[in-house]
Structures are given as structure tokens and as C-alpha cells.
Design a protein that fits this description.
Layout lengths: L7 E7 L6 H14 L4 E7 L6 H11 L3 E6 L5 H11 L4 E4 L8 H12 L4 E8 L5 H18 L6 E8 H8 L8 H7 L4 E7 L12 H15 L2 H29 L7 H34 L6 E5 L8
Parallel strand pairs: 1-2, 1-4, 2-3, 5-7
Antiparallel strand pairs: 3-8, 4-6, 5-6
Bound molecules: uridine-5'-diphosphate and magnesium ion (MG).
């Protein structure tokens, strides 16, 4: 690792972003030098299949404040963020996207707030950029659920943040494997501020999220951050217990007054509904058991195959 220890570490997860690396590095260098911020950029290559790693090496050759970590395969953005946070040496760390959808000007504002003593500075989306209606709807539903479960407004949250060293250490030292960075930054507490930003258009390449990846992301985060679905199962159980008592009394009365032959349709409907709810509940419980199993195995969150500009290999 080079001698100089930066003040601000900028962590950038990159998955198939060959076209964006040098652009982003240059834009950051320019802005940081103009603003007199002593910053290093940590690109985390999340198992890209294109020339991303070559680009990162080239960027590191062009500017000595560029560092790179390369994953042995695609471990996902969360893992990339954590790898960057673990490797970062700065007094504060920022996380931003590789596609410049998170404006650098907002990063500077975050840094200034950090200088004023704020420890967790959240990037808050002022609008969600261009997304299709279905995506917006699903995202709204997910964030509504998460916000209710966490008692925090998550609807405009993003992964664009700047954290003080103390907050970074607190997050990095958490033993859990299934993390949700977006929410963990508020979970750790500390002196918090928010910076609003407009989501920029992605100019090069495409969004790396497929629908299935997003659904998986949403489910993992719900399971890792809240046990509300388990309470919903219990709630459904109570509801059906009440129904059972009512219908039970009704049936018994019918039997005792010899009016019990009808109601075949009711029986079928009840069986179907109860069956569906039992299966659904088992699925929810199974989801949690699956996550417990993953956590208990305690595998590495990611595996680093190579680094550039850094001397230590660290695996988590
Ligand atoms: N990304 C990643 N691993 C993945 C998917 C995405 O590191 O498996 C990175 C990607 O390179 C980018 C950031 O996460 O820097 C945000 O991804 P993208 O721009 O595709 O998402 P969107 O802006 O559409 O939400
Ligand atoms: Mg993007």
C-alpha cells in the first residue's frame, strides 16, 4: 500500500463497468483535487466478465490514489461494499455507484458535513430517476414494508453514503453475513445528516439488476432485517383459531339440531384456504431457517483473488 493514508476513502462497487472506470476515476480525481479533499478510490470488481479489472489496473497506474480489489466471482453489491469498507484506510468512507448516477457534487457536500462533525451522512434520492412503472410499484411496496418494520423512512434511501471511521468500524465488525447496508447505516446510530441528490441518468452500460436479482435482494433484506413476517404467521394463526371456534360452534349446533348435511362447498373452501395459509406460513418460516443455516455456516462474504494498490489480502 502506498505511504499516504487518505482522509476520504471512496468505495465503488463495479460489476461489468469497463466503460465507466476511467471516466469515474478521472471525474473523482478532478473534483477531489479542486476541492482539496485528500481521497483514495477503492474499486471493487465484483467478478466482472468484461475488461473491468484491466481498466481498474490502468486507472491505478494513472493515479496513485486508486486501489482495486478483485473478487473471485460475482458476490453481489453488498459484498463489494463490505470488502471496500474493510479495506479502506480513510478517516471517513463514502460508497457510490460506478456509473456516476450518484453526483460527485453531492459527495463533496457530504464530506463538508463530515468536517462539521456529522458521522453518518445519508444520500437521499430527491427523485428516483427513470424507472418503469412496475419497478417503481414493487420498490414502493418493498420500502413501505421495510419502513414499517424498521420504523424508519426507507423510501428514498440509497447506498450513496458517507460514514465516519467509527460507524464504518461498527458496521464492518458485525458478524452477520446477510447484510443490508442501506439500513445498517441508520441502525448504527451516531450523529446523522442527509444530503438530497437527483439520480443521474446512466450514460454507459446498463443497470446490472435483473428482476430475479432484485426479488432475491428484497426477500433477503426483509428476512435479515425484520421478523415481522413471522409475527404475521402468528397473527394468521390467531385469526384462524377464532374462525375455527366460530365455525366449530356453528357446526356443532347444526349437528345437534339435525341440520348438518349442507355446507360441502364451505368444507372445500376452508380446506383450500387453510392449506394455502399453512404452506405459505411454512414457506416464511423456511425462509428464516434457510437464512439461519447460511449464517451458521459462517462462510466468507466474498473471496478476493487479486488486489492493486493494496498490500493485504483480506477475506471476510
Ligand atoms: N453492482 C455490483 N454487483 C452486482 C450488481 C451491481 O457491484 O452484482 C454495482 C454496479 O457496478 C454499480 C452499482 O452496483 O456500480 C449499482 O448498479 P446499477 O447501476 O446496475 O444499479 P441501478 O443504478 O440500476 O440501481
Ligand atoms: Mg446505476
Amino acid at each position: 500500500m502506498s505511504e499516504k493514508k487518505e482522509t476520504l476513502s471512496i468505495i465503488i462497487p463495479a460489476y461489468n463497468e469497463a466503460g465507466n472506470i476511467s471516466r469515474t476515476a478521472q471525474a473523482l480525481r478532478q473534483a477531489m483535487e479542486a476541492e482539496h479533499i485528500f481521497a483514495a478510490v477503492y474499486f471493487v470488481d465484483d467478478g466482472s466478465a468484461d475488461g473491468t479489472w484491466d481498466e481498474i489496473q490502468a486507472a491505478a497506474g494513472a493515479w496513485d490514489m486508486v486501489r482495486g480489489l478483485r473478487f473471485s466471482r460475482n458476490f453481489g453489491k453488498e459484498a463489494a461494499i463490505f470488502a471496500g469498507l474493510s479495506a479502506a484506510a480513510g478517516d471517513c468512507c463514502a460508497v457510490m455507484d460506478c456509473d456516476l448516477q450518484h453526483p460527485i457534487e453531492a459527495l463533496v457536500r457530504m464530506y463538508r458535513l463530515w468536517e462539521q462533525g456529522f458521522e453518518v451522512i445519508e444520500g437521499v434520492k430527491e427523485d428516483r430517476g427513470r424507472e418503469n412503472v412496475l419497478y417503481k410499484g414493487m420498490a414502493a411496496l418493498f420500502y413501505k414494508f421495510m419502513s414499517a418494520a424498521m420504523k424508519l423512512d426507507m423510501s428514498r434511501a440509497s447506498d450513496f453514503k458517507l460514514l465516519d471511521r467509527r460507524a464504518v468500524d461498527a458496521i464492518v465488525s458485525l458478524p452477520e453475513r446477510n447484510t443490508f447496508f442501506r439500513a445498517l447505516s441508520s441502525w448504527v446510530g451516531f450523529k446523522t445528516a442527509a444530503v438530497g441528490f437527483q439520480v443521474q441518468e446512466r450514460e454507459i452500460g446498463q443497470s446490472k439488476w435483473s428482476t430475479s436479482k432484485l426479488v432475491k435482494y428484497a426477500l433477503t433484506n426483509i428476512v435479515s432485517f425484520t421478523t415481522t413476517p413471522l409475527h404475521i404467521v402468528t397473527g394468521l394463526g390467531v385469526l384462524f383459531l377464532i374462525l375455527a371456534v366460530v365455525l366449530g360452534v356453528n357446526s356443532l349446533v347444526g349437528y345437534l339440531t339435525h341440520r348438518a348435511l349442507e355446507g360441502f362447498t364451505t368444507v372445500i373452501l376452508i380446506e383450500l384456504i387453510v392449506g394455502a395459509i399453512v404452506m405459505l406460513s411454512l414457506g416464511i418460516i423456511g425462509g428464516y431457517i434457510g437464512k439461519i443455516y447460511e449464517e451458521v455456516k459462517g462462510r466468507h462474504r466474498y473471496i478476493i483473488s487479486t488486489t492493486v494498490g493494496l498490500d493485504a489480502h483480506r477475506e471476510h
